[in-house]
Amino acid sequence: MRAYHLLSLLPSAEMATFLIVLCLSSLLFPSVILAAPPRTPIDVAFQKNYVPTWAYDHIKYLNGGSEVHLVLDKYTGTGFQSKGSYLFGHFSMRIKMVPGDSAGTVTAFYLSSQNSEHDEIDFEFLGNRSNQPYIVQTNVFTGGKGNREQRIYLWFDPTKDYHSYSVLWNMYQIVFFVDDVPIRIFKNSKDLGVRFPFNQPMKIYSSLWNADDWATRGGLEKTDWSKAPFVAQYKGFHIDGCEASVNEKFCATQGKRWWDQKEFQDLDGLQYRRLSWVRSKYTIYNYCTDKSRYAAMPPECRRDRDV
Ligand SMILES: *[C@@H]1O[C@H](CO)[C@@H](O)[C@H](O)[C@H]1NC(C)=O
Q1: Molecular function terms in GO for this entry (predicted)?
Q2: In testing the pocket of ligand 1, which one of 124, 138, 154, 216 has its CB within 8 Å of the most ligand atoms?
Q3: Where do the domains of the chain lie?
Q4: Who's near 92: CB < 8 A, 6+ residues apart?
Q5: Dist. CA 217 → ligand 1 center (Å)
Q6: Which residues pair with 112 in a beta bridge?
Q7: Tens of pLDDT along 191-218?
Q8: pLDDT tens for residues 231-258?
Q9: How far apart, in whole angstroms, are the C-alpha atoms of residue 149 and residue 286?
Q10: Nearest CA to ligand 1 atom 12
Q11: Cα–Cα distance measured from residue 117 to residue 241, given in angstroms and rounded to the nearest whole number
């Protein structure tokens, strides 16, 4: 139920009545309008869900794999990927970013299908000089087409503690969360002619590498190799998705899993308020409002406005 769409159509007296009815109905039928945050992730060991992808000797395992360190030095970065491929679900990682002088480094956590017209859901954490803020860049590719960058600052120092970064993906929406705060939504706007990832299973990837040609202040700040090795720390490794083979088109359980249910099909009022707080206070760049790139606001952006 899209209460926020209806509301904007109603004059204020009717609006008041509507709100009262809405409140009453929420008491009687809580699930009608109350959404819920995704299920709390459960920490598991790295090897349950992941394998290293490259530079195996630059991944360090601690406490039986419940904690993993990715190491970047002047020879190489490193990365890992999920064993399985998934169609829809909830994917979460706890990460403590490279501390100190991390300028030029990028830590990424993303979902991607493995074909040419690929779908991809990206978090990229751009390092910075000591005590300068990280940038979180997100992007969504559908059918090989991206160009949907958003960039924000965080409201905390991501190098001091572990924080969770997660993606909720179902037929209705893709939500990027930082801890419990939704920082971005990408709603299914198929009816407006926008492709939505729904039939290409994705693997989950993470990596740490040198990107000093673009990452920090647009490439002006170079990686200081005298500060190497750079280390990003990981925990959590939570995957709760519908496992599909790479070629399989649909999950047998689609529509029946917890993330398909009503309360996960849209954000609730509190989540929308948090999203607007992030948008208004922490946004650096949003393709949705970049008129030099998109004269008309891309359709999916019109849909993801808040109440
Ligand atoms: C790094 O710090 C500078 C100066 O505070 C800032 O302009 C920039 O956005 C920060 N982040 C990155 C990744 O460049």
Answers
A1: hydrolase activity, hydrolyzing O-glycosyl compounds; xyloglucan:xyloglucosyl transferase activity
A2: 216
A3: 36-303
A4: 41, 164, 165, 166, 167, 177, 236, 238
A5: 5
A6: 120, 203
A7: 999 999 999 999 999 999 999 999 999 9
A8: 999 999 999 999 987 665 667 788 899 9
A9: 6
A10: 216
A11: 22
